[in-house]
Amino acid sequence: QLFIFSVLFTFSMQSSTSTLIALSRLLSIIRAIHLQNNDGSFFTAACLFSLILPVAVSLPVFFSMFSSWDFYVFFLIKFQYEYVLFAYIFFWFSIAFAVLTFPFAFYAYFRIMRHDSFRYSYIYKLIVFNGIANCLQYWAYVTSNQIGVLPNLNGYFDFLMDHHLVNLNNFSSLVAGSVQWSTTMVIALNRLLSIVRADELRN
C-alpha cells in the first residue's frame, strides 16, 4: 500500500512540476520582463501547487483502493447486486452516447475541413485532430478496460491473453490518450498565445 501511494504521489509530483516548468518557459518567452519582476512569487506559487496537487490526486485514489471504511465500499457491501446493475447500465449509456454523438462530431469536423473560413486555419485543424484522438482514446479505453463490466464478455479477455494482444491493446489506449492530452495542452497554449500576442501568432 505504501509503495502504491508513493508511486501515485511521485507521478503526480512529476506531472505537475513538468507542467509548471513548461508554462514558466512559455511565460518567459511571451513576457520576459514581467516574469523577471514576479519570478519569486511564481516560484512560491509553483512550489505550493506542486506539493498540494499530488496529495489531492493521490490520497483519494489511495483510500478508495485500500481503505475498508470508504463510504462507497461500505455502501456497496449491502447493495452489491445493485452496484453490478448500475455499472452495467452506465456502460451501455456510455456506449449509446458515444454512438449518438461521435457521428455528429465527425460531420462537424468534415464541414470544418471543407469550409473556406476554417480549412486554412491550423488551429482548427489541430482541434479536429484532437477530436479524432479523443474518439480513438474513448474506444481504446472501452476495448481495453471498460468492457470488463460485461459478465458475458469475459471470454474477450481470454482471447486477448491467448493471442498475446493485451500489450498491444494497452499500447493503443496509451497512445490515443497521450495524443489527446498533448493536443489538448497545445490547443490551450495556442489560445493563450492568441490572447497575449495575437498578431505574432497570426503571422
Strand content: under 5%
Number of DSSP-assigned strands: 0
Task: Give average pLDDT, whole number.
Answer: 67
* Structure annotation, total helices: 9
Please outline the major beta sheet.
Answer: none
**Portion of residues within helices:** over 70%
Q: What oligomeric state is this?
A: single chain
SSE-based structural type: mainly alpha
Total tally of structural domains = 2
Shape, per Cα inertia axes: globular
Question: H/E series, N to C?
Answer: HHHHHHHHH
Tell me the distance between the termini.
53 Å
Using only C-alpha atoms, the radius of gyration works out to 22 Å
Poorly predicted runs of 5 or more residues: 33-37, 57-76
Task: Provide a quick synopsis of the model.
The chain has 203 residues and is an all-alpha fold.
Describe the fold and architecture.
The chain is mainly alpha-helical and 203 residues long. It contains nine helices and no strands. Helix 1 runs antiparallel to helix 3, helix 5 runs antiparallel to helix 6 and helix 6 packs antiparallel against helix 8. It starts with a helix and ends with a helix.
